[in-house]
Amino acid sequence: MSETNRDAAATLILRLGLSWFIFLWAAHKIITPGQYAQLARHFDGIDPSFAQIYAVGAIQIILCLLAAVGLFRLLSFGALAVMHVFTITRRWDGFFDPFALNDSGFPIHRNQVIDLAVMAGFIALILLIHRDRWSIGGWLDRRRGPAWWH
């Protein structure tokens, strides 16, 4: 496999994996909006309506689909990364005690480790946009030349 194809395969894997990761969270907003209303009350002190939760979930799903096919890459990858930064900032305390256990011995902050790995993936994906050849955006770049927004 050529270096160009390895890079394209790597960005495809990152693109699909990260899009799927965020898509699952977005889809659950549509499936179980009550759970997200409780989380918003607990973490953010707000009381969103189900309509607001559905709207946020729908926007996130659209961004995930755009990122998955590699369309408007800087916008879609960047928006998903910013959403993930929001998640990280809401759970910041767990980063300072990564080995904490609950009364049953279960690690309670292990999702924060996952959060950091996902953020690293988003950063890598954004840095590798120019290597993302197996996407609609990559195809468009080859047809008309790269645009600043990719």
Automatic annotation (TrEMBL):
The domain of life is: Bacteria
Q: Where are the transmembrane segments?
A: 12-31, 51-69, 74-92, 112-129
* Keywords from the UniProt entry: Membrane, Transmembrane, Transmembrane helix
Protein name, please? Answer: Uncharacterized protein
Q: What is the scientific name of the source organism?
A: Jannaschia pohangensis
Its lineage opens with: Bacteria, Pseudomonadati, Pseudomonadota, Alphaproteobacteria, Rhodobacterales
